[in-house]
Specification:
By secondary structure, the chain is α+β, with helices and mostly antiparallel strands. About 50% of the residues lie in helices and about 15% in strands. It is elongated, with a radius of gyration of 33 Å.
Length: about 325
């Protein structure tokens, strides 16, 4: 009897497996349509006004455009906004459910009112593009322009969202002031030439604030050694000033034995390049502990070069 029951179980299992394999593939899949995943086709537009309104409001809102790189962002933004507006066009061209739209209205009013904060943040980031503290690293000008353009792209996406909400809710009085604020911000940003002009002016103002720090000590032997070391490493630049930023040796010790491992001193070096620009550089001398003392060491470049106006160097 036990063997017959076992055979019956095997036969039932085989029958179930056969029925699953015979079923259409679509019936075995859990639908993931409409999730917005890349490569997944959008679900067909439903003729049911309730369903299509629920589907639409589940995904609709103020869009955010994520910048990738300056070369591709304009085309990506255009494609992004085309797809966004096409989705709104498709929804408005068919039947809608006024009740569901009414339930969602408060959510969209909240989004509209929240754009004031975003507009202020985007505009603030734009207007400070190219500004930095005197001690900060200065990237290529194109990097600052890219950052400024990213704020403009974010504003354009936000404005498209406000315009779309105005189409879905024509009587929403909160949209018009927000649209006017977005338009004013975009007008302040201007075109590519205006962006470059602002970034260039901000960088120039930041450059004018750069100063060479005063020396922390005077040590002719150290200064001569660091000067010679820099000249060997950067032979094409003329040394104008050298200020020690070490008043004594920094000695690094083993954290367990306290035995010295190396020591270091360094200096800021102001130089003039062949193009006439002036820069502040860093140079360090590193000496390793040999067991009985320190070796002669090696000169290495320190901080990244920072430009300074030649007239602002110490006299």
């Amino acid at each position: 009897m036990r063997r017959l029951a076992s055979l019956a179980t095997i036969a039932l299992t085989a029958s179930i497996a056969a029925s699953i394999l015979a079923a259409p593939a679509a019936a075995q899949r859990t639908s993931r349509e409409g999730r917005g995943s890349a490569g997944v086709a959008a679900a067909p537009d439903s003729p049911n006004p309730v369903k299509r309104t629920w589907d639409f409001t589940k995904r609709f809102g103020i869009p955010r455009f994520d910048s990738a790189d300056c070369a591709s962002d304009p085309a990506r933004l255009a494609e992004f906004l085309d797809a966004y507006n096409a989705n709104v066009d498709r929804f408005l061209a068919g039947p809608t459910d006024p009740k569901k739209l009414g339930l969602e209205r408060r959510n969209y009013v909240k989004q509209v009112l929240g754009t004031a904060r975003d507009i202020g943040a985007y505009l603030g980031a734009f207007e400070t593009s190219g500004q930095r503290s005197p001690d900060s690293y200065v990237p290529p000008v194109e990097d600052d322009i890219c950052r400024a353009q990213a704020q403009k792209h974010a504003l354009l996406a936000l404005r498209a969202g406000l315009a779309a909400i105005a189409r879905v809710y024509p009587d929403m009085v909160e949209v018009a002031p927000a649209l006017a604020e977005a338009d004013a911000a975009l007008a302040r940003v201007g075109d590519d030439a205006a962006i470059r002009k602002l970034v260039t002016a901000n960088r120039a103002a930041s450059l004018a604030a750069v100063r060479m720090k005063p020396a922390l000590a005077k040590n002719p032997a150290w200064e001569n050694g660091l000067r010679d070391g820099f000249s060997r490493l950067v032979p094409d630049e003329t040394i104008l000033r050298l200020h020690l930023y070490s008043s004594d040796w920094y000695i690094h010790r083993n954290e367990f034995t306290s035995v010295p491992e190396y020591r270091q001193i360094g200096a800021w070096v102001a130089t003039r390049r062949s193009d006439g620009t002036c820069w502040i550089n860093g140079i360090d001398l590193w000496q390793n502990f040999t067991g009985t003392g320190f070796d002669s060491g090696e000169y290495k470049l320190g901080q990244a070069p920072q430009q300074i106006l030649c007239e602002n160097l110490p006299k």
